[in-house]
Write a structure and sequence with these properties.
Helix content: 25-40%
Strand order of the largest sheet: 9-8-11-6-4-13
Strand content: 5-15%
Number of strands: 13
Distance between the termini: 39 Å
Radius of gyration: 29 Å
Largest sheet: 6 strands, antiparallel
Shape: flat
């Protein structure tokens, strides 16, 4: 091949080949692959690709030309008004027992364990770079100093967490860095708080971060304060937030600077009354971390540390579940709803009864074993949004006939909704009961779909009702689809309807969104409905979605929700690329910018992993010219890793030539870079023996720049010295997953939000 094809200036490295040109190159190769030499195919020279390195932390801007969503023409139930504070009574005046006194401040938490260690102390500074950059104090508490793996410090008891109450999620969620998408939630009581107790250690903070990483884009913190204390009695305000909108659907993580002058053992977050964006008292967040100076004792404890008062604080029976966005989770609540502590074991539930979406039977809400933390990635966002993990088997059984005349009102209350759901799910529910329920709610069914409790009843009726009942419900939805899709609970009902309805009724839902595709993509509820349409309907019914994306593909790929829609489309029509060819061509032309985008990089990874040979080749050619810059970029480094892992042997050789020859002067810098270092480790793992030797020969002369006491330097050095024994598919050893090494002990890289869908 290399002797028969002449080099021409037609195809520089970063120029896209037409499919005919690609096939011509392929026919000239004996093994069907395009042969490259010196980092380029034998059809042209190299021209550097100037890819602007986008700022990773920027928030996505609204899509151009979206306009605004049509306001929902439905009555959305609001929060109950906050109780009016009681007026001060004269001394000695008795107060009626049935009228509770409004709290005047946060309740006191039980004191933590008595400190057993003292001086001397060691002070280490943790410098803030970006939210959840892996440099925080909380993250370091969960980092295995020997293996580099991260475990939640609340689960390992390296950090003690206490809350005023626990309504949803668990205490581990408050500091979760695995991005499981589960929020901690307190009861809807004024002055809700969470305390982080560093026990034997203290912190003088200069930055802190909070996230709201979840599929539920509501109940964001707005007015709160961060406080510090050394004794759990006297609290110093470190940061005050009044109507702070830093956390919002377009920015799920935020950070704030602090100017603390002292060290504190306890850090407390206190939400103001009516302090979330829905006007409620519930405190919801996750992924807390803090930066600054961290003081730890250097001595050893002569006796085990015990809790003040003796033993671990108990957790009681499962309490009521959250009834806001998403379905419910089991959790444990302590006596009186106060003093929830992280060192108590979690008790298992029974999984989900909703369409088999629970992860297990009799093993807890996440289907895992006892005391095993949930492991759920960002790709499970849809499941998190629509889970229903409370146990309907324990709800008191009723007969719907007995509710005649009051069914609609009964369904709009929490306990009543559960009773009706349990009855509809049982085999004892008669057709007469279902028909009575259907007839009474039908006149107000659209309003019921938007009710925080009633929407679940409608979903159960859709699942267990007769075909005629489903048809009448579909007719009732007509002309309200966009309003329902843009409402928190209405979008749940539409997704269930799209799964259960007949195709003609599903098509009706899709047709009403036909002129609002880009608006739906930009909306944090409606985007789920649009994706469900693409997932369940044939191409002929959703071709309008693809038509709206053409010409906007790059912009949509850079959108937090749009990137997921594109991945779904590319996956569904993987074997029918002619239907989405213009869309893919547009993405390939913009692949340089997309690889460096917080969300667009996931679309490029999808093309690299699942695209056909033609598109993979063009992506490879587009990115090869700027390999050095991409390796050092937080988002793009993941793309380079996938390029090497899923590339042909010739494509890998081209990348090695580019790295070890053209970029040889930059190699020491790349070896020490926190992103490129990880990619180089993976390149060694995925290489055959010959390519591994090339990498070692190129990097070993610079091995002295690697710090063996730092996680990244340590693992690259072990690989270069041949002392890393991770599974490698090319060495015939058992690896973890297809084409990857068993790198469970290696440090985890921080992943940007968005993520691929499965």
């Amino acid at each position: 091949f290399s002797h028969t094809v002449m080099a021409t200036p037609r195809n520089p490295v970063n120029q896209v080949l037409t499919r005919d040109e690609f096939e011509a190159l392929k026919r000239g190769s004996s093994d069907g692959h395009v042969v490259m030499q010196g980092g380029r195919p034998l059809v042209g020279g190299v021209r550097p690709l100037n890819v602007p390195l986008a700022t990773v932390g920027r928030m996505p801007l609204p899509l151009r030309g979206l306009g605004t969503l049509v306001p929902a023409q439905i009555n959305v139930p609001g929060h109950m008004p906050s109780p009016t504070p009681l007026q001060a009574q004269p001394r000695g005046t008795p107060m009626a027992l049935e009228v509770p006194r409004a709290p005047v401040g946060p309740s006191r938490a039980p004191d933590g364990p008595v400190r057993r260690l003292g001086p001397p102390y060691m002070v280490k500074e943790y410098e803030y770079c970006s939210p959840h950059d892996g440099n925080g104090i909380v993250y370091s508490l969960g980092l295995d100093k020997g293996g580099g793996a991260w475990n939640n410090p609340v689960d390992t008891k390296a950090l003690r967490v206490c809350a005023s109450s626990l309504q949803g999620g668990n205490l581990s969620c408050t500091v979760d860095h695995d991005l499981n998408g589960v929020l901690f939630q307190s009861d809807d009581q004024p002055f809700s708080w969470v305390i982080f107790d560093f026990q034997e250690c203290s912190v003088r903070p200069n930055y802190y971060t909070i996230a709201h990483r979840s599929a539920v884009y509501a109940f964001f913190m707005r007015s709160w304060q961060l406080e510090g204390s050394s004794d759990n009695s006297v609290w110093q305000i470190l940061s005050r937030h009044n109507h702070d909108e830093s956390l919002n659907p377009n920015s799920l993580v935020a950070a704030w600077a602090l100017h603390a002058k002292a060290f504190y053992r306890y850090i407390r977050i206190v939400l103001d009354p009516n302090g979330n964006n829905e006007g409620g008292h519930a405190l919801l967040f996750n992924c807390f971390d803090i930066y600054g100076e961290f003081k730890t004792p250097t001595g050893t404890s002569p006796t085990p540390i015990v809790q003040a008062g003796g033993g671990a604080y108990p957790m009681g029976v499962a309490s009521k579940v959250p009834d806001y966005g998403g379905r419910h989770h089991h959790h444990q609540q302590g006596p009186g709803g106060k003093g929830q502590f992280s060192d108590a074991p979690e008790r298992g539930g029974k999984g989900s009864d909703h369409k088999g979406k629970g992860k297990g039977k009799g093993k807890g809400a996440d289907g895992g074993k006892r005391n095993q933390p949930r492991k759920r990635g960002l790709e499970a966002e849809e499941d998190l949004q629509r889970q229903d993990n409370f146990d309907l088997q324990n709800v008191a059984q009723i007969n719907i006939i007995d509710l005649r005349g009051g069914i609609l009102e009964h369904c709009q209350h929490q306990d009543g909704s559960r009773q009706v759901q349990a009855r509809l799910s049982s085999e004892q529910c008669s057709a007469e009961e279902k028909q009575l329920l259907h007839d009474e709610i039908l006149p107000s069914v659209v309003k019921l779909m938007t009710n925080k409790f009633g929407n679940y009843v409608v979903q159960k009726l859709i699942e267990h009702g007769s075909p005629q009942q489903r048809k009448s419900l579909a007719q009732a939805m007509e002309n309200s689809i966009l309003s329902l899709a843009s409402q928190l609970y209405g979008c749940f009902v539409l997704q269930t309807a799209l799964e259960v309805f007949e195709e003609s009724e599903r098509s009706m839902i899709a047709n009403e969104l036909q002129n609002h595709v880009l608006e739906c993509i930009d909306h944090h509820h409606a985007n789920h409905v649009l994706r469900k349409c693409v997932e369940v309907l044939p191409y002929e019914r959703v071709s309008f979605v693809i038509a709206n994306l053409e010409g906007n593909a790059e912009e949509v790929a850079k959108h937090v929700y749009g990137c997921r829609l594109l991945q779904l489309i590319l996956t569904k029509y993987k074997k029918e690329t002619d239907r989405v060819q213009s869309l893919i061509d547009e993405l390939v032309r913009a692949v340089g910018d997309l690889a460096c985008d917080t969300y667009g990089n996931y679309v490029v990874q999808h093309l690299v992993v699942n695209g056909d040979a033609y598109y993979k080749y063009n992506v490879h050619q587009q990115l090869l010219g700027n390999l050095g810059g991409l390796l050092q970029h937080q988002a793009a480094s993941h793309v380079v890793e996938k390029m090497y892992e899923h590339g042909t042997k010739e494509e890998r050789s081209a990348m090695l030539d580019r790295l070890l020859m053209d970029l040889a002067p930059q190699l020491p810098l790349l070896m020490n870079d926190k992103y490129a270092n990880h990619v180089l480790q993976r390149m060694i793992d995925f290489s055959d023996a010959e390519q591994q030797q090339q990498l070692k020969d190129g990097m070993l002369p610079h091995a002295d720049i690697l710090n063996p006491h730092e996680a990244h330097g340590k693992y690259l050095l072990l690989r270069l010295q041949g002392k890393w024994h991770a599974g490698n598919p090319w060495q015939g050893k058992k690896g973890r997953g297809k084409g990857s090494s068993d790198d469970s002990r290696a440090p985890k890289r921080h992943r940007v939000q968005g993520g691929p869908i499965q």
